[in-house]
Amino acid sequence: MSSAHYQALEPQTSDEDNEDIERRSHHPRCTATASAPSSMVRKGGVGRRRCLLPLVGGALCFIAFCYLTLSGETRSALGLGGSTEDSEEESHHGLDSIHFRPLNESLHICSENLEDHRQFLQDKPRSDYGQLPVIYFVTPTYPRREQIPELTRLAHTLLHIPRLHWLVADDQEKCNNFIDTLLNRFGIPFTHLMSPMPSKFRNEKPAPRGVANRRAALQYLRQHNLTNGVLYFGDDDNTYDLQLFSEIRNTQRVSMFPVGLIADYGVSGPVVRKGKVVAFLDSWVAGRRWPVDMAGFAVNLEYMAQYPYVNMPYKPGYEEDLFLRSIGLKMDMIEPRGNNCTDILVWHTQTKSKKLGMIRLESKYLDDRSNLGALLLNLKLMGVASTTENEGRNALISKNGKEKPHSIILS
Q1: Is 320 in the active site?
Q2: Within 10 A of 163 (CB to CB), how many other CB atoms are there?
């Protein structure tokens, strides 16, 4: 599922920009001018008060200037409060208050299997990996005809990864039993969540797709107090190099790496100098402090647990940025992965979705006289195709290169 790049919205100012604007708008203007001596003689006491006003104004101006120019640490040491972090937090909440919602989702678990039924992983017994941190791989998904094949393809990547818990969050109003059966078949520890998008967002263009799913997964992690492991958001239509999982498993706070096939540049990721992340390369900045793709970072759960208001907003294009802000990320915390962000270990390979297939075939031929009844039922359960008796052209059934009437083949 794509989440990071949409048609450009109105550029949004960063927290630093907001702080600069706030300083300029509240800085006192010290332009008072002393009254003429003749005025003081004529007005007596009033004149003396006018003389004092510029002095008081000047003193207030000096105090305000000193307050604004002191560092957050200095103000804190002097007992003045108002640290830089506080200012950033106030700006952050003011900036996003419309789109942020507390994590209060009602969690609905369709099915869950916490046991790993795979006996061997990468030619080693599963027990050999017992000390590794768990990767919580969060996959948002939604009903479409490509859903089951994409989950199947992703599962055959994850089958190679030890110590992984797959959180599959489905944007549906009811649990999909076919997905339950599918996930159980692979033997990977999993949790299948039902996480429909709130109806008020469904008609937005673009809609905040995948947000309710990821919020449900964040809620699951918090409710289960899971703090030992690493969180990664992995869409079901991406392509993953197995090396990626080794790279992110030991994330201490937040690790980052480039993602291929993103927007105009074909890549999005950190700029690294001397082993440190210093900036970002992305063709759509739009005021985002962290212009990265959802697949381009991993988060240590113990670090994330320090931030009780961790969140992801219903704001298309800004989900990654505001999520990373909600966990207090700073540039010097980022751990570059993928050979100092020179290797592409994940690709944003979006599958182009098509409409549900329609097969016109009389219901009397969907019995057990041929395989078609069971085959088409499975396709319907997967959301790939459906049958109809009165729409479109009759289903083509051929033999020896020629179309044959249904009655000849199926009766």
Answers
A1: yes
A2: 19
